């Protein structure tokens, strides 16, 4: 029976990994259709609770929902299979693209087109996140303040400080609001396993940077960078952009190469965190890609395993939910700052580029075209503008 479940999980998640275009919100819709409506592995109430859990945790929400569904269906190994099927198609495509970019003969005009499409994609993501995560004046003000702080102090530590301060603000503003009731989830592991996962998560988060000076290894540095970023990114895949940019540009690559990878990631299905595969390949070849992807998603596994057994308790704590509201508003500010630097400053050279960017934005927002279509059209237009202007 277990083997049958494992094959079902791998088959379903791989199908989603090959067809789930459109970003985290769209992924959650695809997941519901596949896991709740079609396969009936769980009901809508349990699915909604998993979504709430994964929005509460740092990391890629859609990937964590997939991991959680896999764990409910087939234990911890089921969670791994669910992640593997959903993630690998995107990783493979982006690693291949990184190998193409590394080739000196690759036309830089296409790179420029991908940088332009990143402007439209981040603006679109910012608009959607702003509506859901900063819907009232206090949170709008918090998002604007967070953006200003990040632009004035452009460091990785400033981003962490913004998230912490935003959480404190959210706690004091919204702590009196009632938290929703939780749904009981059937798990194959308990609280001891959860505590062990949290212990490993914390030990790696603290220990990796402390030990890094003693290991003169590019692969160790890659593991440290991507594990840290994967541990502290709230708000979904787009927010990974500014955090990774602070870590790898200009030390490991130029801004052009970085932003072009982000643009390419919009054209492939699956989670945006697979950008780690592209960046790891650029940084240190095949092993760099493997290490970067593992390190990027490892915190998600540990956090899901660590939190699921306790979620029925955490879910009912109004203070925790209030702090999360502040954190999410701060995340909108971080993404707003990223829209200017590095996305706009790297991608837009003049009026023609801006005209292409707003055309791409309109195709995404108003004409509702598939992201891969928008990426392809914008890449062609960007390459033409690069060649003739």
TrEMBL record:
InterPro entries: Chr_Tranpt_l_chain, Chromate_transpt
Membrane topology: Multi-pass membrane protein
Gene Ontology cellular component terms for the protein in this record: plasma membrane
One Pfam family matching this protein: Chromate_transp
GO MF annotation list: chromate transmembrane transporter activity
Sequence intervals crossing the membrane: 80-104, 110-129, 141-174, 194-213, 225-244, 287-310, 322-340
Location in or out of the cell: Cell membrane
Domain of life of the organism encoding this protein: Bacteria
Residues of the signal peptide: none
Entry-linked NCBIfam families: 2A51
UniProt name for this protein: Chromate transporter
Organism: Planococcus koreensis
């Amino acid at each position: 029976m277990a083997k049958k479940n494992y094959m079902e999980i791998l088959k379903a998640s791989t199908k989603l990994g090959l067809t789930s275009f459109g970003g985290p919100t769209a992924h959650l819709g695809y997941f519901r259709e596949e896991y709740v409506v079609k396969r009936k592995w769980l009901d809508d109430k349990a699915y909604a609770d998993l979504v709430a859990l994964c929005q509460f945790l740092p990391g890629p929400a859609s990937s964590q929902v997939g991991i959680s569904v896999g764990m409910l269906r087939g234990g911890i190994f089921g969670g791994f299979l669910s992640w593997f099927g959903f993630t690998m198609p995107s990783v493979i495509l982006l690693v291949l693209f990184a190998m193409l970019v590394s080739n000196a003969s690759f036309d830089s005009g296409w790179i420029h087109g991908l940088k332009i499409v990143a402007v439209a994609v981040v603006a679109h993501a910012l608009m959607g996140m702003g509506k859901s995560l900063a819907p009232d004046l206090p949170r709008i003000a918090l998002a604007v303040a967070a953006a200003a702080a990040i632009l004035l102090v452009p460091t990785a530590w400033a981003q962490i400080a913004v998230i912490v301060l935003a959480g404190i603000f959210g706690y004091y503003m919204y702590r009196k609001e009632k938290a929703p009731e939780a749904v009981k989830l059937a798990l194959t592991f308990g609280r001891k396993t959860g505590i062990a996962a949290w212990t490993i998560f914390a030990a790696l988060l603290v220990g990796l940077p402390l030990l890094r000076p003693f290991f003169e290894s590019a692969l160790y540095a890659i593991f440290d960078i991507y594990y840290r970023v994967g541990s502290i990114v709230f708000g979904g895949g787009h927010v990974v952009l500014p955090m990774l940019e602070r870590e790898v540009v200009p030390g490991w690559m130029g801004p052009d190469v970085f932003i072009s990878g982000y643009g390419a990631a919009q054209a492939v299905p699956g989670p945006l965190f697979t950008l780690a595969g592209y960046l790891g390949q650029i940084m240190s070849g095949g092993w760099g890609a493997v290490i970067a992807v593992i390190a990027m998603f490892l915190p998600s596994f540990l956090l899901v395993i660590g939190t699921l057994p306790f979620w029925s308790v955490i879910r009912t704590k109004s203070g925790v939910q209030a702090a999360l509201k502040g954190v999410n508003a701060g995340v909108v500010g971080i993404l707003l700052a990223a829209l200017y630097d590095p996305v706009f400053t790297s991608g837009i050279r003049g009026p023609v580029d801006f005209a292409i960017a707003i055309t791409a934005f309109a195709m995404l927002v108003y004409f509702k075209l598939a992201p891969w279509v928008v990426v392809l059209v914008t890449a062609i237009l960007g390459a033409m503008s690069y060649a003739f202007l």
